[in-house]
Amino acid sequence: MVLRLCSLPWLATLLLVSGPLLAAEPAPDCPEGDATVCGRKHFERGAQAFEKGDFAGSATEFEAALAQRPHPVIRFNFALALARLGRPSAAIAQLRQVIEDPATDKELRGRAERERKSAEQALSRVTFRLSDPTRERVELDGARVDLAGQGELSIDPGMHHVRVISNSSVVLDQDLDLAPGERVELRVGERSRRIDVVVVPDAAPAAPSATPPVVVPAPQPADSGKLPPTWFFVGVGATVALGGLTVWSGLDTQRAHDDYERDLPRLTQGEADERVKDGHSLELRTNLLLAGTLVAGAGTAVLGVWFTSFSGKAQAAVGVAPGRLFVSGRF
Is 260 exposed, middle or buried (0-12, 13-18, 19+ CB in 10 A)? Predict the structure, then answer.
């Protein structure tokens, strides 16, 4: 399941990334370049890819959808795909944008907060114990790192290359393969040039959230104060039912009158009076049903014209995304 956006037109209704995942090119089947159409198709393909476990393809499609029409649901789904790819730092950056976006509703903001905490737990942490921080510098994956007095780096899990340079001498040149949530401490001894790699025990690292993409309902139109169409159709049904009963009662009254006319020569005065009394009761029943039918019909007409809103669907569920680890909704 994915956080899906509903028919809006898909928006009116639902990075610490080292570089863009993929350029946001129009979907092949919308060459006219309409942003709404292209964005919807990218989003739907991203949701399908996520559900199939193709997180790289999912992230690419969601990023392309974001480029067409930014929306917190799409960004949430994009963040979930990044988290599944083992890129929690990029996911955290996207989730922060979802949380800070004024267009994000309360439920989605709560989901984003939970996913951000989960992604933070998946970060690996490396602590440097340097003998002389004023003379020693740290490089991570070829780029110089400013430890800013804290000595700890929070980075994505996986393979990293670390170097510690003192003046012009390299005192540490090492590859680290970090697991999600792992904490490592590197101690560099100035005099002995000794380097200790200490794995800091910690609670079991949090596994990436297995939440499926969120299914987000379409944004609801402003309440006009009118009733939903259901009430109008209930009135139509009641009118039809009363009309049917009226027709039946009229036919039953006519049949009783025909029987009375046929049997009148053989009836006693008492029997004739009883038949007349019954006939009046049948006529009254028919008249009351007819009046009820007319009132129901008129009331239904007034209800439909002045008090019922027939515009659009009340809600489209899809289910995002960013759908429960992911947000699926339809555009």
Answer: middle
| Position 258 pLDDT exceeds 70 | yes
Q: Is the peptide bond before 9 cis (omega within 30 degrees of 0)?
A: yes
CB 317 within 8 A of CB 219: no
Cβ-contact 48, 55 below 8 angstroms: no
Residue 188: count of CB within 10 angstroms of its CB: 20
Least Cα distance to 104 among 70, 136, 128 occurs for 70
- Are 239 and 297 in contact by the 8 Å Cβ rule? The answer is yes
pLDDT for 274 equals 87
For 124-200, CATH number out of 2.40.160, 2.130.10, 2.60.40, 1.25.40 equals 2.60.40
Q: 32 in helix, strand or coil? A: coil
- What gap in Å lies between CA 326 and CA 319, rounded to an integer? 11
φ and ψ at residue 51, rounded to 5 degrees: -65, -25
DSSP string, 128-188: EEES-TTTEEEEETTEEE--TTT-EEEE-SEEEEEEEEETTEEEEEEEEEEPTT-EEEEEE
What does the domain layout of the chain look like in residue ranges?
A: 124-200, 229-306
* Neighbour tally for 170: CB within 10 Å: 10
Q: Where does residue 277 rank: exposed (0-12), middle (13-18), buried (19+ CB within 10 A)?
A: exposed
Write down the pTM of the prediction: 0.52
Q: How many CB atoms lie within 10 A of CB 315?
A: 12
